[in-house]
Amino acid sequence: MRYLILCFTIISLLACSVEEGSDGTNGTNGSNGTDGQPCTASSNEDGSYTVSCPNSDPITVTNGTNGSNGTDGQPCTASSNEDGSYTVSCPNSDPITVTNPQKNDTFWGNITFSSEASLSLFKLAGYKIIVGDVSIISFDNSTLDLSFIERIEGSLSITSNPQITNILLDSIALIGNNFIVDDNDALTSFSLPVLASVGKQLSVGGNDALTSFSLPVLASVNGNFYVSYNVALTDLSLPVLASVGGDFYVSFNNVLTSISLPVLASVTGWFSVGRNEALTSISLPVLASVGMDFDVSYNNVLTSISLPVLASLTGVFSVGGNEALTSLSLPVLASVGGFYVSINNVLTSLSLPVLASVTFSFSVSSNNVLTSISLPVLASVGDFSVSSNNVLTSISLPVLASLTGGFSVGGNEALTSISLPVLASVGGDFYVYGNYALTDLSLPVLASVAGEFFEVLGNDALTTCEIPLIDDSRLPDICR
């Protein structure tokens, strides 16, 4: 602080006073100092280092000596227990018990085996459940042992393995997706004694040496069921199979003699058994529901078909080309989408005691020894056709009142009479032709034929023709 001294002289006396002044301005900063110099370190021959820094004496640094060793520790001990665990004891601490961890028996992912070596390594890993697909292709051993597997959540595919003769599948209880055994030329048999369910498709096909396979507890197949082109397969028995969620096909198994399905109650899709040349019998005692078509055709030595509880079918019922078929039993079939019976050369009679409705077409043709057709309650049909049944003698439809489609009876050489006492309308064409022995045609209440053609011709023996409610120039004089 600065002080201003003011002096005043009054008469001859000097007097002085001191007062506080205001702050002055700050001074300017000084200039930066010069940069410092770094230290350096250099190694010496004896392993020491010399550190030199500017404006100071150098110093030498050497490594220190090792300390003395500590005393030895005491070992831990491990003893086994009866339950498979181990007790570990260490000095100065409490003992602990260790159990073996649970082994992971589930494999996640898809896997393919082509060699016994790769399969053996997989087996050693302890897997029992596979969450994924298993494929066996071009396997290099005659025996395929999958007996260690209990469940396959995906598909099991065993295809194109020319060396495999035997497959062991003893423990597999479930296949979540497809089960396929195809094109294994040397395979003779296989069994899945505990397999209860297949999630989607089951296919056994093209196994040339396969004589049998066993699925004794298989109860459901949720997709399609195919057994085809197994030329050495002799029988097919599925004792507890109750449902098929897709189509059921058994075809082109040349020496297959029997099919037994004692508890099969429903098939969601098609049911088809065809071209099994040695098939003599099919057992379907409880089949009650087929979602689409039912077809049994061209099984040359099949003698009988019986469906004692099948009451309705929304699709087509077809039985054809079974040259040895003598019996077709449908005692409770009441309604069907379509009905076709043809080229069954030794079938002598056809009785449908409760069939009341056919949505689309009813056709019986080319059954060479068929003598009678019984349709006592058939009331409604789309198209009706009976043709080329050489020894059929009569047709009687006592309650058929209307046809939404056409009516055709032709080429039945031994047919002598047609009785349609309540048929009132035909929605399509009407043909009665080429029935050379026909003597009597009676349509007493027929009043309408909507189709373009209304023809009764080529029935050389016709003596009585009663169609009194229609006067149509297309009819022969005897019918007018």
Structure description:
The protein has 480 residues and is mainly beta. It has a domain at 383-480. 2% of the residues lie in helices and 40% in strands. It contains one helix and 51 strands. The strands form nine sheets. It has a 19-stranded parallel β-sheet that branches. A nine-stranded parallel β-sheet has the order 9-11-14-17-20-23-26-29-32, with no helix packed on it. The radius of gyration is 49 Å and the shape is elongated. The protein starts with a strand and ends in a 14-residue tail after the last strand. The model is unreliable at 1-18 (pLDDT under 50).
Q: Biggest β-sheet, characterized?
A: 19 strands, parallel
Coarse shape: elongated
Helix content: under 10%
Alpha carbon gyration radius: 49 Å
Instruction: Give the beta-strand count.
Output: 51
Q: How many distinct helices?
A: 1
- Secondary-structure-based class equals mainly beta
Average predicted confidence as pLDDT: 89
**Which runs of at least 5 residues are low in confidence (pLDDT < 50)?**
1-18
Straight-line distance between termini? 152 Å
- Beta-sheet strand percentage? 35-45%
Provide key terms for this protein.
51 strands; single chain; mainly beta; 19-stranded parallel β-sheet; 480 residues; nine-stranded parallel β-sheet
SSE diagram, text form:
Layout: E1 3-10, E2 13-20, E3 40-43, E4 49-52, E5 59-61, E6 77-80, E7 86-89, E8 96-98, E9 106-108, E10 111-113, H1 116-124, E11 129-131, E12 134-137, E13 143-145, E14 151-152, E15 156-159, E16 166-168, E17 174-175, E18 179-182, E19 189-191, E20 197-198, E21 202-205, E22 212-214, E23 220-221, E24 225-228, E25 235-237, E26 243-244, E27 248-251, E28 258-260, E29 266-267, E30 271-274, E31 281-283, E32 289-290, E33 294-297, E34 304-306, E35 312-320, E36 327-329, E37 335-342, E38 349-351, E39 357-365, E40 372-374, E41 380-387, E42 394-396, E43 402-403, E44 407-410, E45 417-419, E46 425-426, E47 430-433, E48 440-442, E49 448-449, E50 454-457, E51 464-466
Parallel strand pairs: 9-11, 10-12, 11-14, 12-15, 13-16, 14-17, 15-18, 16-19, 17-20, 18-21, 19-22, 20-23, 21-24, 23-26, 24-27, 25-28, 26-29, 27-30, 28-31, 29-32, 30-33, 33-35, 34-36, 35-37, 37-39, 38-40, 39-41, 40-42, 41-43, 41-44, 42-45, 43-46, 44-47, 45-48, 46-49, 47-50, 48-51
Antiparallel strand pairs: 1-2, 3-4, 4-5, 6-7, 7-8
